[in-house]
Here is the input.
Amino acid sequence: MRTVVVVLSLFLAFQCAQAQKSSAPVLLSIDEKGFDALRAESKGKVLVLNVWATWCKPCVEEFADLVKLEKAYSKEGLDVVFVAIDDDARAKQKVMAFLRKMSAASPSYIKETDNDEVFINALNPQWSGVLPATFIYNRKGELVKMKVEESTFLEFEQLIKPLLQK
Here is the structure.
């Protein structure tokens, strides 16, 4: 009987792991009011919030490095969150297709508001709206770095490692 329970437990654990690996990305809508809740949810963790668009070549080029960063450091307390600002008629389909292609497991959002200025100011009044934009918050939820340029895995890693050790 014990052997059956152990084998069944192992089988179920394997099935859960496979389901998580093959699960499709989730894309939620976010407006300017959602950022406070997003930051609050990540308190106690280091948050890397990346604002991007499918039409932004530097955004697309750095995306894989952010996915790699999340996979490498999530167990140490890193949250990577993506916010797409695509807003044409097929925006959700384009973003979902890209997320699947990149195997993005991180929470992903798409801008819901039409007022770009309010959206930008909700993230950071000093941000001009240039993409890609990455906001890095410490475990207390305080903004420690705003990067408004394409970055590499190593550059992101240098920024988050000291924050993860605190």
Observations:
- The helical segments are 2-22, 34-41, 57-73, 91-101, 116-123, 153-164.
- Residues 2-22 form the longest helix (21 residues).
- The first strand starts at residue 27 and ends at 30.
- Residues 1-22 have pLDDT under 50 and may be disordered.
